[in-house]
Amino acid sequence: MLLTQQGTTSRKELAWTRWVLQSARVWDDVAGIVRIIGIHAVDEDHRKFTQYALDLNLIIQALSNRDASFENLHKGNDIFRQLLDYAHIHFQREERIMRSMKSPMLGQHLEQHGMFLGMIEEHYDNFKQGRLQMVSGLKLSILDWWVNHINVVDYKTFVLGKTETMRLVK
Ligand SMILES: [Fe+2]
Ligand SMILES: [Fe+2]
Asked: Ligand 1 (ion): which residues have CB within 5 A?
């Protein structure tokens, strides 16, 4: 059920995944479409960050329904900060593991993380500048990217690329 492997994934499955991502509110709603990596700390990060991204979607939804109350703007701001802080923590963790397992995916993988941080920062800037229409148009992009990254890039790096050294990482 990988979002980018369109050749091997049926349209039905992709539509299903998209529908799940669009309608989900809590981790349990999406747990079934997020792959397990098998490193406890990494899987925990994935779960927590997914919940932040879902929380952000709810706020974006409220803001696009014109509920731009002070409370929602404040919550949105907090969630963006949590997303950025947590993404940094998680990406540093993955980088340490990749270095210790001497992963050939390291360069490519870090590039993806960098792009994602840039994307969140850009959304956050739009949000801070009150460009709510731009933020609301991007409802799925963070969650979508995140789940796709876990299922494709993290999976390839940490599960398919598992080495002897890595068996010691837990
Ligand atoms: Fe990850
Ligand atoms: Fe990653």
From this structure: 154
Q: Which one is the CATH code of 11-168: 3.40.50.1000, 3.40.1190.10, 1.20.120.50, 1.10.1270.20?
A: 1.20.120.50
Report how far ligand 1's centroid is from the alpha carbon of 44 (Å). 10
Q: How far is the CA of 47 from the centre of ligand 2 (A)?
A: 13
Question: How far apart, in whole angstroms, are the C-alpha atoms of residue 1 and residue 81?
Answer: 30
Please report how many Cα atoms fall inside a 13 Å half-sphere around the Cα of residue 130, on the Cβ side. 3
* Ligand 1 center–CA 10 separation, angstroms: 25
Q: What pTM was computed for the model?
A: 0.85
Neighbours of ion ligand 2 (CB under 5 A): 94, 154
Would you give the distance in Å from CA 140 to the centre of its chain? Answer: 10
**Better-scored residue on pLDDT, 49 or 126:** 49
Read off the pLDDT band of 1 (50, 70, 90).
very low
